[in-house]
Model the fold of this input.
Amino acid sequence: MVRRLWAMVLMLLVLAVPAGTAWADGPAATSSAEVEVAADGDAARMEGCSFAAEGFECSRTGSAREIDGRSYGYTYRLSDPERVAVANTADCAVMFIPRQVADQFGIESPDDGAVSDLWSLMEALDSNFSAGVVPLRNQDERYVLIGTVGSQTDTSLTVGEATFTFAREIGAGRYYVTIEGPDAAYDVKAELRPAQMDSAHLVPAEGLALAQEGTPLEQLGEFLATMDYSPLWVTLRTSGVAIVFVFFLGLAAAYFTLRISKRAQNIFDTVFTIPMVLPPTVCGFLLLSLLGRNTAFGRFFQDIGFPLAFSWQATVIAAVVVAFPLMYRSARGAFESLDPNMLDAARTLGWSNGRIFMRLMLPLAWSSIASGTVLAFARALGEFGCTLFLAGNQLGSTRTIPIAIYFEWMNGNTEATWFWTIVLMVFSFLVIMFINLWSRHTTRYRQRSDYEGRSPKPRRNGTRGGGRRGRAAAADDGLEEAERTVSDGLMAEGGER
Done:
């Protein structure tokens, strides 16, 4: 019903446009026919139109970075130069139709009636990907450009101070849509606020088969069957490798800071903890400045075939840096809570520092160390900002689940966004629950009778040791008994030696 009402309004607008109005000079009209969109949002066709759109792609984010050492303003990557492309900004939308495609479907000029149908197709496909930006169907100022791919002058259109260039080849086989200002001082992103770039192939309408919606179970099965699960494997591999480094580095750093002077402790403690305070993007920027391909350190590893930036190794480095402080602080606090007299007693028996660490410090502090390991693993699992800065978003290599969630949402793929969100929540819950149960199971408390070797205390009000004082006394007795147990173990070790 809403579509029909909208179509009627658009039809009135079409009738109201004076004859001879050029689409390139003002708002574009749209067809009143209803557009049929495939269930997957990939293709669309319209009754009475000789062509249809398929292979729809939406780029929600472009880039203002230099390409091969040169700035092209704001750029979008275009997968195929023979695609119809629409660059949508906050104030206007510019459509490019390759000359070969226009000739194939009889589109002679920007004010051709077929252009109206093409706008309707692109609007319908764009509606599923326009969350948070100006939808293409709501854009008032529109322009159409028909040009020959390969000629920059023929594929460029100047709107105001900005120049839109389509199917621009920058490097071998790499095509872009660029938006440039009159000079280098012109900030395209701030002035025009580019929203997104839509593109699609035009095909004959009679040869297009649209995917139809099935039952909920069929839709779920098709979604799971076509889902790309590479972010899950990248995340598991990254977190697994990172937690191994974090575990040993955290223990080593905590043990090291305990054996140096107080003044040095303050310095190293600040250095080891600062990644926990800094925003992840700041950590990523600092790491990129140190390990980037433009630095001597980064070029060295690049030359030996082990790149540290924009590679899978970069995801591990980012996860280690942001998760390390949690492991370090937990281990440091656990070691500081140990009784120094007990450690001194072990030294008097001739125990080495390594033996004291492995036989006393590590077992007694294991509960806190296990908690720190869980927190560090969870932090590595959900790392986003530092990873995106240092490793980028490369599908199958550096795209982790948090990065996939962000870019799937930016591209309007709500189903994939919810899928990865639920997967991350469930997986994090199960992993943390398992490690907590495992650490609790492996913690052994040696308990003995509170009254072994001593006469029982008299009953109070029918109970032995009842009341608040009795419970406090029992707790003190338990503490003393635990200390005697450790002392007995140390003495036994000394007797064996």
Notes: The chain has 17 helices and 13 strands.
